[in-house]
Design brief:
Largest sheet: none
Structural class: mainly alpha
Radius of gyration: 26 Å
Oligomer: single chain
Order of helices and strands: HHHH
CATH topology of the domain at 52-99: Helix Hairpins
Number of strands: 0
Helix content: 40-55%
CATH architecture of the domain at 52-99: Orthogonal Bundle
Length: 131
């Protein structure tokens, strides 16, 4: 077939590699340069985006993120609500790829937080009274 198996010997591993590392080319357009490229554009290939730009919701993500990046509003991104809402709605079509907190989990968390609050308040009162 198309696959080929190659066995490496102990001697192969003991011999220093002859591979040469190529110096980074600053003009390489695919070189990872962070989220924002030197010209101010968004680097959609940045690993920091976690593949969001190339996933099934990539176009919606790019639209929302671009809007936020280039926003000149007093509250940055306040003009991008519609794009983020569209992205969120689109992501809900792919729950396996974009898991969201279950509403029941949120209710349990908030009820646990509420249970802890009165207890903390009563402990604080006891501490004030005992001094």
């Amino acid at each position: 077939g198309k696959d080929r198996i190659i066995f490496a010997t102990k001697e192969d591993h003991e011999t220093p590699s002859s591979a040469e590392l190529v110096a980074d080319d600053p003009d390489d357009p695919y070189e990872e340069q962070g989220l924002i490229l030197p010209n101010g554009d968004i680097n959609w290939n940045c690993p920091c985006l976690g593949g969001m730009a190339s996933g099934p919701c990539g176009e919606q993500f790019k639209s929302a993120f671009s809007c936020f990046h280039y926003s000149t509003e007093e509250i940055k991104g306040s003009d991008c609500v519609d794009q983020f809402r569209a992205m969120q709605e689109f992501m809900q079509k792919y729950p396996d790829l974009y898991p969201q907190e279950d509403e029941n989990e949120e209710k349990e968390k908030s009820s646990k937080d509420l249970e802890a609050t009165p207890m903390e308040a009563s402990v604080a009162k006891e501490e004030k009274g005992s001094s």
